[in-house]
Amino acid sequence: MEQLVNFIIRPPRAEYDPKSDLLDQEFMLKGKWYHRKDVEIKNSRDDILQCSHYMPIVSPEGKPLPCVIYCHGNSGCRADASEAAIILLPSNITVFTLDFSGSGISGGEHVTLGWNEKDDLRAVVNYLREDGNVSLIGLWGRSMGAVTSLMYGAEDPSIAGMVLDSPFSDLVDLMMELVDTYKIRLPKFTVKFAIQYMRRAIQKKAKFDITDLNTIKVAKSCFVPALLGHAIDDDFIQPHHSDRIFEAYMGDKNIIKFEGDHNSPRPQFYFDSINIFFHNVLQPPEDEVGESFFDTVNDYFGKDVWTSVHELGHSNEPSFKNKEPSTSSTVDAIKEVRSRRPMSRMEVPSDISSKDEHHEHEGEKCGDRSPSSSSMISFELSNGDPFGPHVPTTMDDDQYVEYQLEDLAGFPSSAEEEERMFMEAVMESLKDMEVRNPQAEQPKAGES
């Protein structure tokens, strides 16, 4: 089960090179010049957060502009905000993005699926408000970032609006669903035990309680205007999670469903809806007629991208005039960004077998490593039956014993200790079943 714990609090960090995987330090988008300002912000736990702020070189009327903070998923990083920047910058909305603590190249050891990330977001909001160069603030989160945005928005009603892309409604429910989706071979009572085990393990390592990550409760006390989005074929965080949040949400709300899955590129109509939503809630200033710095039909290009104009932004001469950018629309610009560095993906750990691969991989060993906790999940209880001869494959919620760990002194310290505790939970459950069905053990009449 250690792999399952790490899947939550220590997924692989997104790897990227700020010099090549972020939008350029200076770039043109739809005839206007923008730049990227990289900053470091310290959170309340003294972790250094690596951040970037995309904004126009010259603001319309010289006034502060509204800003959207992009919040990435649990395996993501600030490079995932490139699409958001391309979408929102032409509307005079700046985009701020960060590597959450434990993610990307920021400090911090663990990911907490929104719990500590909420405090990271608070540090960013405080920075932007003290900086004085932004007016209204909006949030755009995906997966873990959507949960983070919702949890923070419930505490800060000054947030003008939020886009919540594929949030989960309750982390424990999500974990139960993942066991079913990926056909992890556990009777329900052992699933409950496993989740209790993981709860304690995560409390010990990452210092937060998974039962506190319930966004349904948060939605009932949040009044920030929100636009929810969810892919209809998302089998990681299923669409009903957004439906439940939408039903409970107290503020102005709307929801959009679109084709794809959890990691699919989002469709253009969804981006258009986001742009309209943020335009309405953030009320950015309109450009003055003829304000564009250069009269060009080209939508986007920057240094070291399509045209390799290294001198761009370092010369007063419009040296780009003889260069031919390969993009002619925002849609093409997004495609080009995706080709350079695709959006970070949420991947199920390879050692959690899928329903099609489970039997092929059952019993395989990984090199010389000792048996992992996850490999013990599918061990046979007796006589070759994966569930044991007396254990029903379907059980009601009250047909299990939740193996309580009241303190960390009883926490398993090895794979062998974990298996012993696991089997104790199984035996306690079997005894409980015998108490409930005493007649099943009575000899029939005439038998000695």
Structure description:
The longest helix is centred in the last third of the chain and has 22 residues, at 415-436. The chain contains 14 helices and 10 strands. Helix content is 32%, strand content 15%. Strands 9-8-7-6-4-5-3-2-1-10 form a 10-stranded mixed sheet, sandwiched between helices. By secondary structure, the chain is α/β, with parallel strands linked by helices. The radius of gyration is 26 Å and the shape is globular. The two termini are 46 Å apart.
Per-chain topology:
Blueprint (H helix, E strand, L loop, with lengths): L1 H8 L8 H4 L4 E4 L2 E11 L5 E9 L8 E7 L10 H7 L5 E5 L18 H15 L2 E9 L1 H10 L7 E5 L5 H11 L6 H19 L8 H5 L6 E6 L8 H9 L4 E6 L9 H15 L17 E3 L27 H11 L17 H4 L11 H4 L38 H22 L12
Parallel strand pairs: 4-5, 4-6, 6-7, 7-8, 8-9
Antiparallel strand pairs: 1-2, 1-10, 2-3, 3-5
Helix pairs in contact: 1-7, 3-11, 4-5
Which strand order spans the largest sheet, edge to edge or round the barrel?
A: 9-8-7-6-4-5-3-2-1-10
Number-wise, the strands total 10
User: Which residues form runs of ≥5 with pLDDT under 50?
Assistant: 289-298, 303-328, 352-410
Residue-averaged pLDDT, rounded? Answer: 77
Helical amount among residues, as a percent range? 25-40%
Distance between the termini: 46 Å
- Tell me the strand percentage band: 5-15%
User: What Rg do the Cα atoms give?
Assistant: 26 Å
| Overall geometric form | globular
* Count of helical regions: 14
- Biggest pleated-sheet summary: 10 strands, mixed
Protein name: AB hydrolase-1 domain-containing protein
Region (Disordered): 313-391
Domain AB hydrolase-1: 66-182
InterPro entries: AB_hydrolase_1, AB_hydrolase_fold, DNA-binding_regulatory
